[in-house]
């Protein structure tokens, strides 16, 4: 039995809650913990291949410093995901404030699968570059 697919009714507050949790985690890491280094990826450490998340933390750090090009080099799907989330939250908020009129980006149930696919393709490309040509991340 499948439940009702998620809509803006659930996705919009969930996106704000996720943003608040991530912002809180960043502030905790930055100001309370004093920017400790993040441990290296277990998969990379043990098997010397990239996992779908490898480079994601570095991309987030680069974005936090305003280095978009560097973030794209480290992990393009992270940048795409954050851009999509920002566009979604911005258009949804403006749309709601204007009485649900104007242009808006609605959540679509295919988004999670598309983003997971993007992460997997990125991982595959990185591992082909690394294992096939010796080009590191
Ligand atoms: Zn990894």
Question: Beta-sheet strand percentage?
Answer: under 5%
Name every ligand kind in the structure: zinc ion
Q: How much helical structure, as a percent, in the residues?
A: 55-70%
Strand-pairing-aware structural class: mainly alpha
Distance between the ends: 42 Å
> Can you count the beta strands?
0
The Cα radius of gyration reads 18 Å
Let me know the average pLDDT: 93
Sum up the overall morphology in one term. globular
| Main pleated-sheet profile | none
Low-confidence segments, given as residue ranges, are: none
Number of helices: 6
SSE sequence, one letter per element: HHHHHH
Outline the structure in words.
Keywords: Membrane, Transmembrane, Transmembrane helix. This is DUF2752 domain-containing protein. This protein is an all-alpha fold. It has a domain at 42-133. The chain contains six helices and no strands. Helix 5 packs antiparallel against helix 6. The chain is globular and about 55 Å long. It starts with 7 loop residues before the first helix and ends with a helix. Bound molecules: zinc ion. The site of zinc ion (ZN) has 7 residues, from helix 2.
């Amino acid at each position: 039995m499948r439940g009702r697919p998620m809509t803006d009714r659930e996705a919009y507050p969930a996106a704000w809650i996720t943003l608040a949790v991530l912002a809180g985690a960043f502030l905790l890491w930055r100001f309370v913990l004093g920017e400790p280094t993040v441990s290296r990826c277990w998969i990379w450490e043990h098997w010397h291949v990239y996992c779908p998340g490898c480079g994601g933390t570095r991309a987030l750090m680069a974005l936090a410093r305003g280095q978009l090009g560097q973030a794209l080099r480290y992990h393009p799907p992270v940048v795409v995901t954050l851009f999509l989330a920002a566009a979604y939250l911005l258009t949804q908020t403006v749309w709601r404030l204007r009485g649900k009129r104007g242009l808006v980006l609605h959540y679509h149930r295919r988004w999670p699968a598309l983003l997971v696919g993007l992460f997997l393709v990125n991982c595959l490309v990185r591992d082909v570059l690394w294992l096939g040509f010796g080009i590191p991340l």
